[in-house]
Design a protein that fits this description.
Length: about 400
């Protein structure tokens, strides 16, 4: 007789698991609270649909916190495996200029989802919509809000994080795990906008404008990329990647970041340029010889005193180390991802709950962190594959 498997949740991690489970061994049922699968997957698709990232494995793995936790899953199902699998279901991908990997041009997010859904149908997965899991009965059966009850030999939770509640991933399951004596950590925003109290004149002129080709540093972590200056503060890949460091500092008050507006120049090279320039003044040199944008020059001019701006040594140093104070973090519901959820001490290396044998947790509902840019979806797909591989072997 086949063993029965219940998968709760129908997002990225669950879709991966359900595709890779061996349906000759398992009778697979998936329960999703919405009337459709992959709502957050589709939301991710709106902003570019960055499925994974092409950087080498060691660098790739180093993006995750805590570092060693996801290495086995990421090694079992690498970005290349992900691309090969996507191609096999009719979704060819390409590596963009930033090393991010996307579905080939013209392939819409909904088409990627449909291709995965087709893989689920081929794998004989029974999908039950409008099924909100609400907890366990005394006999460990699965309870749903429509008062139905399900039992299964194995149960895999893939309930997602706590942002973008509209997609169904509202984190309301946290209390049920807590009640069952499983340690959970409160959700916090990651990959989100950070609050900066800009001087008024900067916002009037530059709100919505990007700072490109910059490097941001917080504590000992540094990230190249771009950010957009907004009314709230700053958002974009260069600051998202520093979420853990900034979050830690903001929890104690404020965080300090520094921006390098000219990563390809040293302070000495900048000073040389500023002192030997034929431009009529420093502003012209910044604009025409160092190619700083109007926003970069605007920030430097607004935040430096006149004496500091005229002192070429100070000016060179500030171009390389422009300090910005972060005063807060965006609301959790607006974050691309969250940290918090099931404490990693509660699961073993196969994502099985130590206190609830035969129950597993995968995806963003576990307490790990990674920058956006393909790392989140890759981790969810890798966890789904890794767990399927483990169960198929049993
Ligand atoms: C705006 C935005 C942009 C993003 N862009 C990217 C990107 O470009 N690249 C990238 O790698 N990642 C991106 N992400 C992150 C990525 O989408 C998530 O990390 C990923 O979807 C998490 O997968 P998951 O399976 O763990 O959870 P989810 O995809 O959130 O799925 C969880 C599922 O469980 C269901 N559920 C929840 N509670 C219950 C319950 N009680 N009963 C039954 N079902 C339940 C939910 O309805 C949901 O369908 C983005 C996210 C957002 C919000």
């Amino acid at each position: 007789m086949k063993q029965t498997i219940a998968i709760i949740g129908g997002g990225a991690a669950a879709l991966s698991l359900a595709s890779f489970l061996d349906s000759t061994k398992f009778d697979i049922s998936l329960y999703e609270k919405n009337k459709a699968l992959g709502r957050k997957f589709l939301v991710a698709g709106k902003g570019g649909f960055n499925l994974t990232h092409a950087e080498p494995m060691d660098d790739f793995v180093s993006r995750y916190a805590p570092k060693p936790f996801l290495k086995p899953a990421l090694s079992a199902f690498t970005k290349d495996d992900f691309r090969v699998w996507l191609a096999s279901i009719g979704v060819p991908t390409f590596v963009g200029s930033s090393n991010r990997i996307y579905p080939e041009k013209g392939i819409k997010p909904i088409e990627v989802l449909r291709a995965i859904e087709k893989a689920l149908v081929l794998n004989k997965v029974k999908i039950h919509f409008n099924k909100t899991w609400t907890g366990w009965s005394e006999k460990e059966a699965l309870l749903f809000s429509d008062e139905t009850v399900a039992t299964s030999d194995l149960c895999i939770f893939a309930l997602g994080g706590g942002s973008w509640k509209i997609t169904g991933s509202d984190g309301s399951w946290l209390s049920e795990f807590k009640k069952a004596g499983i340690k959970t950590n409160a959700f916090e925003a990651s990959n989100c906008a950070f609050e900066v109290k800009w001087k008024g004149a900067i916002l009037d002129k530059f709100a919505g404008k990007p700072l490109k080709n910059i490097r941001i540093t917080c504590q000992d972590k540094t990230q190249k990329g771009e950010v957009v200056l907004t009314k709230f503060g700053l958002e974009g890949n260069a600051i998202y990647a520093l979420s853990p460091e900034i979050r830690k500092q903001v929890s104690k008050g404020t965080a300090q970041i520094t921006v390098d507006f000219k990563p390809t120049f040293s302070v000495e090279a900048l000073l040389e340029k500023l002192t030997t320039t034929k431009a009529k003044n420093s502003t012209d040199c910044l604009k025409h010889e160092l190619n700083l944008s109007a926003l970069q020059i605007g920030l430097i001019r607004s935040y430096l005193t006149k004496d500091e701006f005229l002192n070429k040594e100070t000016l060179s140093q500030k171009i390389k180390n422009f300090p910005i104070q972060i005063d807060g973090i965006a609301h959790i519901d607006e974050a691309i991802s969250t940290v918090g959820g099931i404490d990693l001490k509660e699961i073993n290396s196969n994502f099985e709950l130590i206190k609830k044998p035969n129950s597993y947790c995968i995806g963003e509902m576990l307490d790990w962190d990674a920058p956006t840019g393909g790392y989140l979806l890759q981790a969810c797909f890798s966890m789904g594959y890794h767990l399927a591989e483990h169960l198929n072997k049993e």
